[in-house]
DNA sequence: TATGTATGAATGAATG
DNA sequence: CATTCATTCATACATA
């Protein structure tokens, strides 16, 4: 995209693109991670953050994200490298990923997505083949379209779809 | 465990991308959220879904999840209270670009041992346009396509400082 | 300068 | 509703 922080403020917010862990910080984090600490508690996060702050600026959010990514990444690596089949890793067979990815590499990024049906990417990718003009296809039963999902919320009808909250809406 | 689609590992079925709210949808959702509607009733969800469906494919579940996440992440706590700098000079000039509603703490700050001009400025975001065709939903990024209409990204662009971690660690 | 990779960060969805 | 997971985006850095 273009201006991340200079938009509203207009001042020099000195945008830090993103936190870059120093080697020391990384070592500490790695060590902690190796200790078997899966999801550090808030207190732990604060502690770690404080410790790491001695070796460079850092926030609790950074630490949290780090662990979060670490776990996710580690798991992903395991699945791909282990004896597990895992044939599809990062296939990314999306319709047209070309234009999407290249917009950041260059110095210019367009916010103006060209109107194209191919780019349709939603919960029901299959419809892309026979998508009309997405006029009345916005039916709430988008998930119902697949039989695979029927087991979850298929027979539920209109509202049973939320298995996580069958009563999320009580008072009107 | 519910296997949505990815579990089958059928590389043919492709992977269904998660719902990506269009700028318009996001604006509407944001607006509704700002109205103070905490937990929209089922009827409300239906209504919203119907409204949003005019701007792209969406299901009630998407709306429901959105509000759930919104509420959860909106609570963004100031965890950065402990994060202090030690040997590095921290600039407190960081300010809040705006104050829509998700203006979390001003603890964003990182990058330490690399004094360099972080002045990134590309172009004006005015290039964004709202396609009334069938492209509104095919936004390649849907991030800050329209920064002016949504304060979501308006605060700091992609870096929402805090957004996913309001209480990451439980009791420990 | 352009491309590829590693990884921090954002977010929709799932689970408890 | 709180927390965690999984996926994707975007950027820092290495490389040609």
TrEMBL record, chains A, B:
A GO molecular function held by the record: DNA binding
Gene Ontology CC: one annotated term: nucleus
Keywords, sorted A to Z: DNA-binding, Homeobox, Nucleus
Region (Disordered): 75-104
DNA-binding region(s), residue ranges: 14-78
Subcellular localization, as worded in the UniProt entry: Nucleus
Membrane recorded as keyword: no
Highest taxon, organism lineage: Eukaryota
Positions of the Homeobox domain: 12-77
Protein name: WUSCHEL related homeobox 13
Classification of source organism: Eukaryota, Viridiplantae, Streptophyta, Embryophyta, Tracheophyta
Span covered, complete protein: 80 to 251 of 251
């Amino acid at each position: 995209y273009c201006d991340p922080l200079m938009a509203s403020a207009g001042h020099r917010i000195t945008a830090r693109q993103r936190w870059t862990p120093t080697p020391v910080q990384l070592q500490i984090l790695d060590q902690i991670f190796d200790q078997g600490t899966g999801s550090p508690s808030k207190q732990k996060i604060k502690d770690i953050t404080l410790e790491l702050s001695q070796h460079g600026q850092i926030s609790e959010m950074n630490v949290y994200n780090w662990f979060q990514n670490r776990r996710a990444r580690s798991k992903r690596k395991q699945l791909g490298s282990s004896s597990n089949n895992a044939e599809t890793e990062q296939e990314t067979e999306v319709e047209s990923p070309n234009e999407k990815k290249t917009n950041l590499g260059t110095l210019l990024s367009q916010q103006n997505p060209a109107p194209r049906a191919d780019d349709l990417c939603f919960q029901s990718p299959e419809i892309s083949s026979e998508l009309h003009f997405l006029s009345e296809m916005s039916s709430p039963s988008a998930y119902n379209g697949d039989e695979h999902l029927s087991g979850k919320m298929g027979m539920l009808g209109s509202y049973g779809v939320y298995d996580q909250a069958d009563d999320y809406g009580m008072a009107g």
